[in-house]
Structures are given as C-alpha cells and as structure tokens.
C-alpha cells in the first residue's frame, strides 16, 4: 500500500529544499497564536498568510500552511483550558474538563496532556493518511446525502450525552441551537426567523455565537472574583506539572490512539471535520470510562480525547483533499486555494502523477507533529502565566479581543452584537441548569443536518423506501439506534443506583 520508490523520492525532495523546513517553526507559532486568541480561527490565520505562499515553491508553501493548521489545532485548547473559552470550535470539548482542572490548579497538567494528545493525534492522522490515501479515494465516493445525514444525526444526539443535567434539558438546549442555526436563508432560498431585519439574512454567525455562549457568559460569572485560581500557591507557573501531564498522557496511550482513530475517521468525511470529531471522541471516552460521572469535573481523559481527535482529523481531511480534491473544512479549503495558486489540482490523478510530492507532504507533517511538542511546550509555559493576572484586568481585555476578533470575522457590528446576545443567553442557561454545550452542538451541526436532509429528500422524491436501497445508511442507522438505546439504559441505571437516591 506504500510506494517505497516514491517514498525515497519524497525524502530526496525534502532534503534538497531547506525552505521546506525553515517555514515550519514560524508556521507552528502563527497557528498557536491565532488559535489561542478567541475569534481568530485557524482558517483566518491561513487566509492571512496565504498570499505569502505565492512566492514559494509548491512544497514549502503547503508545508507552511499545514504548520499553521497543526499549530492552530492545539492553540485553541489554551484559552479553553485556562478560561473556558474555546479558541476554535474544534476545542469545545476540551473546555469541558480542561477548565475544571484549571480551577483546581491543574492547568499545567491539562495543558501538558492536551499538547501531547494533539501532537500524537496529528502524527496518527498522517501515518494513517500514508496508508489510506489511495483506497479512501474510492471509499468516500460511496457516501451520499443519506449517509451524511446519519452522521449529522449522530452529532446531534451527542446532545443527550454531553450534559450533566436531564436528557430533556439537553435536548431542549440542543433544539434551541438548531433553531438558531436556521435563521436566515435556507438551502432552498426560504427566508426564516429574520423578523424583517436585513442583518439576519445571512443567519447567526457560528463563531461569534460560540464565543458569546462560552466566553462572555463565563466572564460574566467570573465577576466578583480576584483570580482564575483562588489559591495563590496553585497559581505558580512551573514546567514540572506540564511535563507530568504530558507523561501521564503518554502512559495512557490507548486512550490517545482511540481519540486519534475517531478523529481520523470523521475527518475523512467531507464537511464534518474537527468541530464534530472532538465532540464524538469526548462522548466515546465518557461512555467507555469506568467513572463517567467524573467527566465535566476535571478528568484529564476528556482533554486527551478532545485534543487527540481534533488534531488527527487534520490528517483525515487531507485524505479527501489529496484523493478527491474536496476540502473537508475551512482549513483544507484554503489549502485547496493554495493548490490552485500553484496550478495544482488535487484528486486521484494528482496522487498517481505526483506520488513523491504526496509522500513529501505527509512526511513533512509527521515531522511537524514532533516539532509541535517542543514549540508547544514553550508556548504553553508562557501562556499558563495568565492565571497570575487579576480578573479585573483580564476580563475586559479578553472581551475586547473577542469583540475585535468577531468584528474581523463578520466585517460589521453583527459579530460583537452576537457575542453580547449569546453571552446573555449563555448566562441565563447556566443560571437555570441548561447545558450551553448542547446549544453549541446544535448550532454547529444544524446547517449540515439541514443541507443533507434537503438533498436526501430531493433525490428520494420524499419516498422513505429509498433508504432500502442504501445498505450503508441502514447499517449506520441500526448502529445509531443500538448505541443510543445502550446509552439511555446505562444512564437510567446509573441514576436509579446513585447514592443520591
């Protein structure tokens, strides 16, 4: 399955072009910085630096952009862990346990665990890519709208898992997120929920809403406190806890590989990507854990599961980009733009004609994942100093950065106003015990579910019997029913036998 002649040629390509390595470390730092600033996503970083790659050869250009991609994959975890503010949508699940760890003074352990999980996840994704880039070009073509709809439903039903309150509250919060995602024009051109406002024609921007629901609502809750961590002894910034978290993650390597496998599999599916992968991996880790009640309260397994999956999905997304010329998300869409700038078209023909370049890209990204450990260790040591800053200074600064970032995304006041509105909504939901995470899941996956439902309805002419001719869909639906039944039974059993009763 590996062409060793092409692999040897790839090594020669990398060895003969020093620029291919010189751009990697700056790219990692750029990705870490952009990922760590709420509102500035990985795709924004890649878009900002895309013009610079026009003056590079093809290989260094793509390695520079993928280094930004790799760095940003972990960068979003830093504010998620330290302040409960996911820097990117792919770090949503990281905050579930990362922030509770920070509140207990275990921010170093959480950052170390996340860094190693992210690096191993990236490494795993690209190693799998090396073996699968050929066969997957045929497998992905078997997934149609109905299969993609089932994938979206899987994501939506994670709502029932990712909350500590009742299933009813989780579903209600998730449905609210789906309803918010339907505001604006539909896929069929129908205008909904705009209340006559032209500013809502494009819908509610997802990233500003996410920042508001998580960041602004959390910052409102922080008012009145002096520091993120109340115990001054726990606010010390030391390298030892970071190394301890990294070591514990390496010792628990089966959990890292499980999250990496989930992320790679989901990343291969076009249009899904890290936003779904981190949630799916977190849910799997929680369901398979011997102590699921510890999740959401500072369990490092939650951080590992999320970071391993969102980083490994990068390799999965590159599968469809290289094999089919289809971007799996915003980051790979920018990579596709870089391909076009260099007059290169991804797809089966590109793989067969340029196998050495494909392997050079894969090998370059494998090295990037190893370098991320060293570069990331320096970055998290500096970033963890945030726990020493008084909240009276930190809260207005973070809010200002978030507002400016969302203004940059939308190009208007819609972004900052969305942050303000979503922040108020998030605070009310937290006040009455409704899980904000469920609303975020619905907001992120709702557009995908609606689009695939529309296409499925169109190709089936509204006839449910159409599914009988889609065996992959039927198998996926059967697996979904079994998993959800097992989940609900386990949850009911756990509540019936809990000490509180």
Architecture blueprint of SSEs:
Blueprint: H1 4-16, H2 19-22, H3 24-36, H4 42-49, H5 58-75, H6 77-83, H7 92-103, H8 107-132, H9 136-139, H10 145-157, H11 167-181, E1 184-185, E2 191-192, H12 206-222, H13 239-251, H14 253-268, H15 274-288, H16 300-324, H17 330-341, H18 348-353, H19 355-383, H20 391-410, H21 414-431, H22 436-460, H23 471-496
Antiparallel strand pairs: 1-2
* Strand tally: 2
Pairing-aware structural class of the strands and helices?
A: mainly alpha
Q: What do the pLDDT scores average to?
A: 78
Oligomer: single chain
Identify the overall geometry.
globular
Number of helices: 23
Can you give a write-up of this model?
With 501 residues, this protein is mostly helical. The chain has one domain (4-462). The chain contains 23 helices and 2 strands. A two-stranded antiparallel sheet has the order 1-2. The protein is globular and about 60 Å long. The protein starts with a helix and ends in a 5-residue tail after the last helix. The model is unreliable at 497-501 (pLDDT under 50).
Which features would summarize this protein structure in a list?
501 residues, mainly alpha, disordered C terminus
């Amino acid at each position: 399955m590996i062409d060793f002649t092409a692999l040897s040629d790839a090594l020669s390509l990398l060895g003969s072009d020093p620029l291919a390595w010189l751009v990697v470390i700056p790219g990692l730092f750029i990705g870490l910085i952009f990922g760590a600033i709420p509102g500035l996503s990985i795709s924004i970083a890649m878009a900002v630096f895309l013009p610079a790659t026009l003056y590079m050869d093809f290989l260094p250009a793509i390695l520079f952009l993928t280094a930004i991609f790799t760095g940003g994959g972990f960068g979003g975890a830093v504010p998620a862990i330290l302040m409960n503010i996911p820097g990117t949508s792919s770090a949503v699940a990281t905050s579930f346990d990362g922030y509770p760890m920070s509140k207990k003074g275990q921010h170093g352990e959480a950052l170390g665990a996340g860094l190693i999980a992210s690096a191993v996840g990236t490494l795993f994704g690209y190693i799998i890519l090396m073996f699968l880039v050929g066969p997957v070009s045929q497998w992905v073509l078997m997934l149609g709208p109905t299969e993609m709809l089932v994938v979206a439903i899987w994501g939506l039903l994670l709502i029932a898992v990712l909350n500590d309150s009742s299933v009813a509250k989780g579903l209600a919060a998730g449905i609210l997120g789906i309803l918010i995602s339907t505001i604006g024009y539909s896929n069929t051109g129908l205008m909904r929920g705009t209340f006559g406002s032209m500013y809502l024609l494009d819908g509610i921007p997802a990233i500003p809403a996410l920042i508001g629901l998580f960041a602004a609502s959390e910052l409102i809750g922080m008012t009145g406190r002096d520091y993120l961590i109340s115990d001054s002894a726990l606010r010390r910034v030391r390298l030892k806890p970071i190394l301890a978290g990294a070591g514990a993650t390496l010792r628990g390597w089966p959990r890292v590989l499980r999250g990496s496998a989930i992320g790679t599999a989901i990343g291969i599916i076009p249009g899904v990507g890290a936003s779904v992968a981190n949630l799916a991996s977190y849910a799997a880790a929680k369901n398979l854990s011997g102590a699921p009640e510890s999740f959401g309260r500072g369990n490092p397994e939650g951080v590992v599961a999320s970071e391993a999956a969102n980083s490994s999905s990068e390799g999965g997304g590159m599968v469809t980009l290289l094999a089919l010329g289809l971007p799996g998300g915003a980051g790979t869409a920018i990579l596709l733009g870089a391909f076009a700038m260099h007059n290169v078209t991804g797809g089966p023909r590109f793989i067969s004609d340029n196998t050495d370049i494909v392997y050079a890209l894969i090998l370059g990204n494998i090295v990037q994942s190893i370098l991320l450990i060293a570069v990331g260790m320096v970055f998290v040591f500096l970033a963890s100093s945030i726990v020493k800053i008084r909240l009276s200074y930190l809260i207005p600064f973070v809010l200002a950065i978030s507002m400016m970032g969302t203004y940059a995304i939308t190009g208007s006041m819609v972004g900052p106003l969305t942050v303000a509105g979503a922040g108020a909504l998030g605070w009310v939901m937290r006040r009455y015990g409704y899980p904000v995470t469920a609303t975020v899941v619905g907001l992120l996956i709702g557009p995908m579910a609606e689009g695939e439902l529309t296409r499925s309805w169109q190709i089936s002419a509204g006839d449910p019997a159409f599914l009988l001719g889609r065996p992959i869909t039927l198998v996926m639906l059967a697996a979904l029913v079994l998993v959800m039944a097992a989940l609900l039974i386990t949850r009911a059993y756990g509540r019936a036998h809990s000490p509180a009763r």
